[in-house]
């Protein structure tokens, strides 16, 4: 029974392939909407298919990783410039 409630609360298709939105409304009524990020995740689960959600999350992860690499390169450049003087 836990797997069914977990599928409902995440908005993922249940075992029979149908999309359950019961967990979404239950989460909203019980205070599941606690942050702006939570609201975006709920809207995403309603509006986008799981493949689109995964693609968007992967793209955002790539953006964040690129930013980390850029920051690392900038830090190395600063250290190199300081040690040269």
TrEMBL record:
Q: Where is the composition biased (Polar residues)?
A: 1-12
Region Disordered: list its residue ranges: 1-22
The protein's name: Uncharacterized protein
This chain's source organism reads Streptacidiphilus alkalitolerans
């Amino acid at each position: 029974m836990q797997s069914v409630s977990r599928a409902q609360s995440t908005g993922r298709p249940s075992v029979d392939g149908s999309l359950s939105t019961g967990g979404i409304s239950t989460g909203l009524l019980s205070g599941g909407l606690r942050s702006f990020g939570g609201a975006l995740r709920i809207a995403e689960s309603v509006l986008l298919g799981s493949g689109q959600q995964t693609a968007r999350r992967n793209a955002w992860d790539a953006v964040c990783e690129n930013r980390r690499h850029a920051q690392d390169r900038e830090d190395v450049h600063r250290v190199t410039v300081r040690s040269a003087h």
